Each structure stands twice: as structure tokens, then as C-alpha cells.
Amino acid sequence: MKIETENHKLIYHPERVSEWLSTGDCYPIYVEIGPTNRCNHHCIFCALDWIEKEYKDIDPVVMNRAFGEMSACGVKSVMFAGEGEPFLHPDICDFVINAKKAGLDVAMATNGVLFTEEKIRKCLPHLSWLRYSLDAGTADTHYKIHRGGKNDFDKIIGNIRKVVEIKKQNQYPVVIGVQLLIISENFDEIIPFIQLMKEIGVDNVQLKPYSQHPLSKNRYSVDVTRMDHLAEKLQEYNDDSFQVIFRQKSAHRVVEEKPYPECYGLPFYALIEADGNIIPCNLYHTRTEFAYGNLYNESFSEIWQSKKRHEVITKIKELGIETCRKGCRLDPANRYLSALKHPHPHVNFI
CA 133 to CA 156: how far, in whole Å? Predict the structure, then answer.
């Protein structure tokens, strides 16, 4: 299965887009969930290095109730990732199972250390896709970048081998991917990383350009032209069972000016934090003045239809997008929605 990561997927949801065009609002298609804000790694490129954390795990009663509420509202998918490592939440496997039972497509992003065989066997049948954040091709570089345990790289590689084995044994349809976030510290390991993952038998690797979070303290970047020189070389590794996803367009979007006047994509997407707050995007982690509402106090539908949410969106619109993250997740969707909102005068000439 070939994966598309460089574009939005709103073309597959015309009814929701039509609703947004008619009313200016709709329920989200996709929700990202941070079940805990605890993490066992302290990555040098972490976008959330500015946050002073009071460690929290979301209450399982609140979380499990929310799956049914979201599904009833028309949410199509959830992905567990967020502020921390999702497998540090003691109920994460139950969350995966219950979200799927509620009718949601389910995905997971993990650093892979704690995704051991027992949890793999519980979660894998219910996942649409799984992405490991490895970010290195050797143990030494992984330790320098992720700043976890000195043996974590070998543990993760063992866990990836196990997940590939279990997938193949059971013929699960889950797509297994491994990501490398491109920074100068790992640039020279891109090819060894790809070779190792192909040998293990994952479905794809994703090479993602670093994007500066506006509030982050760290500063990492790689010259876009240097990444462009990679493109042809990477194609050599593609075949029917393995895909190198090089996010070349995203690398250029990181340095381009935004060709739209505001963030149109917010109604289609949301984040749930470990404290139960629902927020617009990761620019607003822990910034409670931008929270739509809290699942401990209201249902998902009540929050989405609330006066507070509409006030937050109005506030974001007034603030503008100049300080937003370049090349953010919603950037491709914003380009598409802006074109629909402001059509070229010759659109009728098919």
C-alpha cells in the first residue's frame, strides 16, 4: 500500500467540506490524542521543549466515553501521540481497542521502547497504521538525539522486528512505518537508516524535514537544496513491498510564505491533551486560554458547539497566521480550502 503524506485528504470528504463551505464550520474528521504528557525520551528537537510539565495521564473513564461521543459526531479517525509517549499510559492498549470498537480508525506514533510483544499483540489487530519515531541509523546517534537509555536503540529495533513478524504471521492490514526527522545530526545516516528498515521488512520509512515550532527553544535545520539532492538516490530503494516517503514538498513549504490569509483547516482537526482539554493545534499546548473546553466537564459535542470554542477560533483569526508554524500539518489543507474559498475566475473552464 503506497502512502500519501504530502497532501491533504479532504478530497475524500466532500460532504464535510461542503458543510464547511456552506456554514463556515463542521465536526472534525481527525483527532490527535495525547493520553499522557510523560515521556521516556528528551529529544533534542522536541517541539514542546518550552512546556513546564505537571505530569498527567487522562482518566480512562473520560477517554473511553469520548470515543463514542466523537464517533457519534462524525469523527472518522484518532491517532495516539501528543505531548508524551503514549505507551507510558497504563491503559493505552484498552484505548486502542475501545476506539476501534467505537467505529474509529486508529493509529499510533511511538518512540518504540515500550511497545513490547505483549502490547504489540493487543494493539496491532486494531491499528490502521503505526509509526515509530527512530530518527537515527545507529545506536550512538539515536542516544545523542533522543537522550533516552543507552540501550534503547537495540530495544526498539528488536520491537520493530517483532511487530513485523506478528503482522506477517497474522496477515494484519496495519501499515508499519518508521520516521526520521531530518536534522544535521542525522543527515549522514539517512541511507543506513533506510537500508536497515528495508532489511527488517517495514512497509515504509518517512523522511520528514525539521520544522521550527514558534515557541520552541531549540534551533535545527538542514538546507533545503541539500535535501533535494537526495530525491533521486532514494528512489532506488522503492519496490512493491517498501516505500521511501521523502517529504520534499514539506521541506519547501517550511521556508515558503503561506499563500492563504487564515487557518481554514481548524474545524477539520483537533487535539485532546492529557488533562482533557481540547485544543486547536499543537501551538496551544498548555495555553488554557485557547482550550475549546474540557472532556472532564462536557461532552465532545457540547465542547465543539460551545460559545467558548467559537470565541477561541475568532481570537485565532484575529491574531493571524504570521506567527504560526511554517509547513504545519494543516498547511496542505489550508491551501486547498483557500482555493475553494477564493476560486480563480476561470474555474469553470475545465
Answer: 10
Rounded distance, CA 284 to CA 290, Å?
A: 6
CB 285 within 8 A of CB 279: yes
Rounded to two decimals, the pTM is 0.93
Q: Can you list the alpha helix ranges (DSSP code H) found in 11-116?
A: 14-23, 60-73, 92-101
Radius of gyration of the chain (CA): 20
Question: How many alpha carbons lie under 13 Å from residue 45 in its C-beta half-sphere?
Answer: 24
More confident residue, 257 or 164: 164
Asked if 123 contacts 93 with a C-beta cutoff of 8 angstroms, the reply is: yes
161: Cα within 13 Å, side-chain hemisphere: 9
Sign of CA dihedral 282, 283, 286, 291: negative
Q: In terms of Cα–Cα distance, which of 113, 114, 167 is closest to 135?
A: 113
Has residue 219 got a pLDDT over 70? yes
Written as one letter, the residue type at 196 is L
**pLDDT tens, position by position, 122-155:** 999 999 999 999 999 999 999 999 999 999 999 9
110, amino acid identity: T
What is the DSSP secondary-structure string of 175-236?
Answer: EEEEEEEE-TTTGGGHHHHHHHHHHHT-SEEEEEE----TT-S------HHHHHTTHHHHGG
Helix and strand element counts for the chain (H, E) = 13, 10
Looking up cell 521523502, which residue turns up? 246
- 307 burial level (CB within 10 Å; 0-12, 13-18, 19+): exposed
Question: What pLDDT, on a 0 to 100 scale, did the predictor assign at position 255?
Answer: 63
| Dist. CA 327–CA 45, nearest whole Å | 16
C-alpha to C-alpha distances, 135 to 110, 140, 188, 202, nearest whole angstrom: 12, 12, 12, 15
Task: Classify strands 175-182 and 277-279 as parallel, antiparallel or unpaired.
Answer: unpaired
CB of 127 closer than 8 Å to CB of 174: yes
Give pLDDT, residue 50: 61
Question: What's the pLDDT at 257?
Answer: 81
